[in-house]
Amino acid sequence: MTVSPNHFRDRIIIQALMLVALFASSATTAEQALPGVHPLFSDHMVFPRDIAAPVWGWAKPGSEVTVQMGDKNEKAKTDKSGRWQVKLGPFGAGGPHTLTISGSVNATFNDVLIGDVWLCSGQSNMEWGVASTNDAEKEITAANHPNIRLFQVPKLISLHPEDVVDGKWTTCSPDTIKSFSAVGYFFGRTIHQDLNVPIGLINSSWGGTVAEAWTSAKALRTMEEFKGPVHDVERMGKNGQVDFDQEMAKWWKHNDPGSNNGLGFADPALDVGGWKTMAQPGAWENLGLPNFDGIVWLRRDFDLTEDQLGKDLMLHLGPVDDRDTTWVNGSKVGEANQWDAQRVYKVPRKLLTAGRNTVTIRILDTGGNGGLYGNPEQLKLVREGKDLLRLDGEWRYQASAALKDMTTPPQRLDGNPNVPTVLSNGMIACLEPYAIKGAIWYQGESNAGRAEQYRQLLPTMIGDWRKRFEVGDFPFYIVQLANFMDTTNAPVQSGWAELREAQLLTALRTPNCGIAVTIDIGDAKDIHPRNKQDVGRRLALQALHKTYGKSIIYEGPRYKAITIDGDKIRVQFDSLGGGLIVRGDQLSGFAIAGADGKFSHAKAVIDGDSIVVCADGIAEPKMVRYGWANNPPATLFNKDGLPASPFRSDAPQ
Prior knowledge:
Layout: E1 15-17, H1 20-24, E2 46-48, E3 53-58, E4 64-69, E5 72-77, E6 83-88, E7 94-103, E8 107-122, H2 124-127, H3 136-141, E9 145-152, E10 169-172, H4 182-195, E11 199-205, H5 217-220, H6 224-239, H7 244-255, E12 276-280, E13 294-304, E14 313-321, E15 323-328, E16 331-337, E17 342-347, E18 355-365, E19 371-372, E20 380-383, E21 386-390, E22 393-402, E23 410-412, H8 422-428, E24 438-442, H9 451-469, E25 476-479, H10 495-509, E26 513-516, H11 533-546, E27 558-565, E28 568-574, E29 580-582, E30 590-593, E31 599-601, E32 603-607, E33 610-614, E34 623-626, E35 636-638, E36 647-648
Parallel strand pairs: 1-23, 2-8, 8-11, 8-24, 9-11, 24-25, 25-26
Antiparallel strand pairs: 3-6, 4-5, 4-7, 7-8, 9-10, 12-22, 13-18, 13-22, 14-17, 14-19, 14-20, 15-16, 15-18, 20-21, 27-28, 28-33, 29-35, 30-31, 30-34, 32-33, 34-36
């Protein structure tokens, strides 16, 4: 299923086709009265330590402002736009202090601590609150940390970079921590307890969102495939609404062979004798289309008697993952684009005939499982509130177009955060240029299915943020996607495995980055695993070692290289810690292949600081993979309890 509460998801860059009404009632911040002091400066804030940090706000152009804390003060004059800014400090960790602004702006902020501020961002697994984690009651009761401060950024879609944020700092307590990011909290708590310095946490996250929504227009324009969507976002912001239905129809015809000739596959007269069959409802990945993301058409005939005609019917499909368009006898009866919404469509009586009738469904899935996935009793025709005819059972199907071959689908902006730049504008720009210590990032489910693009997109976003916050190449720590969805019996291609690889490569190739591997603490049935404590702790291990210089074991075994010896492959690792160990009954999750690229499960044994793998029937192995699935077994760890990241030796360069 698409990853999002929302979880996650359009495969490709989403073009913005906006509704003017959404923005007609609200002005941009440039048109609003701006505050004398930016809202990030308030009572209970954490002021960045050890650097001269910016403090800013707005006042009458040409007027003077003085900012003072402790024995340091700085003066500034407002520019032509009315903006003023000073850099105050450096200060050592501690507090509380009082921050005073005087002159054309007068404000006093109390209980100001000096410490490190971390930005926590991503989608739903970063947004997930402490109240929904393991041992929630115990964790909330114990969350009395007066030197940890919290700032929640409200959800906001914007076409233009916002100057201010509607929020305030609060002290971490059982009352304030319940809905705050659990990953952010457990990360910050570990850092605070280890270093004994004040920690500020800014949570700016939104479930089910794509990485390009968090990236600026300037940065996205460096990627060829985003130039068009960014241009459209900016154009629509100036010019208003275009006809979305017309644009969507053009997209279907361009990308879907089943839609590009009149009624196409929705034509009830179409000969579908060559189509295969699958039982419905059920995810198509388990019913004949393994690991397929893209467009699939489903079709079923049903018979009605004369007695069953004469009234409108209601067609119930249950939930559809993700976007469906549904026809009865060649006439469209409904469509929706929400993976967790029940589909119920009215079928006017004039569309129905005695004898054979045909229902046809076009489904676009953009990641994870796809198709009709409800219960059998949900798939039916209903007349006047009573079940008339069950439609579960055998349906014919035709895979029409793969996700990787498609261009950008249009998308309405009414309430949709999955549009390039809109969260960068609404939820990141409003924080700049606060002197953050670094950032932690838990996102990727919504970009699964286009991992190759993510290998460039995520580093682009990181570089974008670093330029905008003006504190250099600040630390950026990534949560690798956890295990999720059904396990598989045979080695497979996996969009989630490829996305994990993209995250790992970003961490290895981008300066001052790291990754927290979570392949062992996911949940096959829940995209939101409840164990957020270990996620936060593993992020904190990265920071404690790389940012704060602690001599600790901070990651699990990491693939280094292979050597081939006859029918065996020896795998070498970095980050061995205290040495390699097996968790569970045996070392599993390895697969090897010869020159033909056909992978088979492999036997694997630990031999000192390496793993030796082989498989029956493969005399000349060429490549090896570990954990290469949506939900693989996690069996390889170091003695410090940290898991190995999934890998493939045949990764594209």
